[in-house]
Design brief:
alpha+beta; 5-stranded mixed β-sheet; 3-stranded mixed β-sheet
Length: 322
């Protein structure tokens, strides 16, 4: 047998944790948010399936969410609770394999290669997660990480799906090519101009057309669309970035306040890097303007650094983002 990878995804995790503490809210359109005032700045962090029926989803501005679902119940985020439950989930998963890659508080990959009955183990871990935490999860089993993640999303909530490369294209071939990791908004625009819109079209795309649209990277994306993914399950994930952000209660035009805020965030980022013995080369500023349009600009320095003064000098060169 080849590789057998499971992807475990906790269903509506933040909301589900909150419902453990507030069972009276079950069946209602509940959102976990950055606050409890629907008219203040903030975004939806997670939405119950009842709220999703109204078009409310994660990253949606609260004001828009409230217009779509005025009766929604807003619960403030509580990361201490989410982390505590997440640790219990991951402890369960490590009982089924020594090779577990934690991909977030609510998801992980498990290498079940060599297991005599991987499907039975997948169902067993689902049942144990429910028993230990009171929460349901969806599990996808596949020959690699990409297909496993897609599989876990096909039968939500409380799903269990086994999928191979042929089954993947049958299931998601008609979906937008942006489903494939690495196909961001700009790449998708270039693919659209080349007449490639769906996962299936990307999988069948001509080499010359792909290279003209995206360069050599297009061929790697085509492999992913075909279900080819050789990434190993890694028990230790490499830290690739350090970031901080803040949301103002109202629009800010005071340049001094903006500069002070950027300086504070830059110092906090550098403290975080230093605490892990790390340094970085690329400084990125992200700014969200009305009406919720996000702009980013980056500057790469010659040598890795965690010096706040050097990061501040770099950010000064990139702070004009609109």
């Amino acid at each position: 047998m080849g590789r057998v990878i499971a992807h475990v995804d906790m269903d509506a995790f933040y909301v589900s944790v909150e419902l453990l503490r507030r069972p009276e809210l079950r069946g209602q359109p509940v959102v976990v948010a950055t606050g409890t005032d629907p008219h203040a700045r903030g975004v939806v962090m997670a939405a119950s399936y009842e709220a999703r029926r109204f078009g409310v989803h994660s990253a949606l501005p609260l004001a828009i969410a409230h217009r779509r679902c005025p009766q929604m119940v807003m619960v403030p985020r509580n990361f201490d609770s989410y982390r505590a439950i997440s640790r219990r989930v991951m402890k369960v998963l490590r009982g089924y394999s020594e090779t577990v890659e934690v991909a977030g508080l609510d998801e992980a990959y498990i290498d079940l290669t060599g297991s005599p009955a991987p499907k039975a183990r997948g169902r067993a871990l689902k049942a144990e997660v429910l028993k230990v935490t009171g929460l349901v999860c969806s599990v996808g089993i596949a020959p690699n990480k990409l297909i496993a993640k897609i599989a876990s999303d096909l039968d939500k909530p409380d799903g269990f799906c086994v999928l191979d490369a042929d089954g993947m294209l049958a299931a998601v071939g008609d979906r937008p090519a942006s489903l494939i990791p690495g196909v961001g908004p700009k790449s998708y625009e270039k693919l659209e101009r080349a007449g490639i819109r769906t996962v299936g079209e990307l999988a069948r795309a001509d080499t010359g057309i792909l290279e003209q649209a995206l360069g050599r990277s297009g061929l790697g994306l085509r492999d992913l669309a075909r279900g080819i993914d050789e990434r190993p399950v890694q028990t230790r994930r490499e830290r690739k970035s350090e970031s901080r952000e803040t949301t103002f209660a109202s629009d800010v035009r005071d340049r001094r306040l903006l500069a002070e805020t950027l300086g504070r965030l830059a110092s906090s980022v550098c403290e975080g890097l230093a605490s892990h013995g790390l340094a970085g080369r690329t400084v990125t500023i992200k700014l969200r303007l009305a009406p919720f349009r996000t702009h980013t600009r980056s500057q790469t320095v010659t040598q890795p650094t965690c010096d706040a003064a050097q990061v501040s000098r770099a950010r000064a060169r990139v702070r004009r983002v609109a």
